[in-house]
Amino acid sequence: MYCPCCQTSTLKRARLDEHLAVHACQTCEGQWVSSYDYWHWLEWQPDSGKIKPCESMDLSDPLHGSDNRRASFCPECNHLMRRAKVGHGLKFYLDRCSHCGGSWFDQGEWQVLQAHNIHDKVHLVFSEPWQSQIRQAEFNRVLEATYRSALGDEDYAQALNVRAWLEQHPHRDYILSVLNQVPPSEDESRYIPVRNSHPEPVQKSQLSQNALPKEEVNKHPVAYGHGVQPKPYDLPQPAK
Ligand SMILES: [Zn+2]
Ligand SMILES: [Zn+2]
Predict the structure, then answer these.
(1) Radius of gyration of the chain (CA)
(2) Burial 156-182 (b: 16+ CB within 10 A, else e)
(3) SS3 (DSSP) at 20
(4) Which ligand is in closest contact with the Cα of 78?
(5) How far does the centroid of ligand 1 lie from the alpha carbon of residue 120, in Å?
(6) Helix or strand or coil: residue 89?
(7) Per-residue model confidence as pLDDT tens digits over 30-42
(8) Which one of 4, 89, 124, 216 has the minimum C-beta count within 10 Å?
């Protein structure tokens, strides 16, 4: 079995830990983990089935593996390997063969994954939910950079304070409608205090249902108050 990175060196059997057998390259120090060896090792790991990105990671100071950045072929079945970004603060990609399920780790990558508690989630790195989280995190970073650049750090911090206050406010939508100068939504309108009790307003749909046929109104315009000028009130005249 040849190294997918060096392509000339032969991989030698080695061990990453007590339960994990690998094929290691002595030239580039990369490691190949077959699907069988990975799943066998995973059975010994606690909580191995959960996506649990390490919360203590400092995203502002990402660690780097020694990513070889080249398309590689599987040393076991010779299919082109798929690359996937690890994310969650780590800037390198992993290579995995979709055909046989084996994974390649460049020098030091396994140890970095282990330090961040992702080494037992390698199979999840290639899943859509994992990749979707990474895309969302990248989008949020770009958005924040845009806001900071437009507002400056101080105003951006102030905007975050306002947002935090607004998010827990019971009349959040109503305040937003004030800020946006648009009428409040129906849900919020019910909070507006009413001074006098009024009958229920007639709905537009009701008006159209109760409307008289047009021909009927045209025949008797006066009866229906059409075309008639309103008269001034007959005020009582003072006694002469
Ligand atoms: Zn190599
Ligand atoms: Zn393969």
Answers:
(1) 35
(2) eeeeeeeeeeeeeeeeebbbebeeeee
(3) strand
(4) 2
(5) 23
(6) coil
(7) 999 999 999 999 9
(8) 216
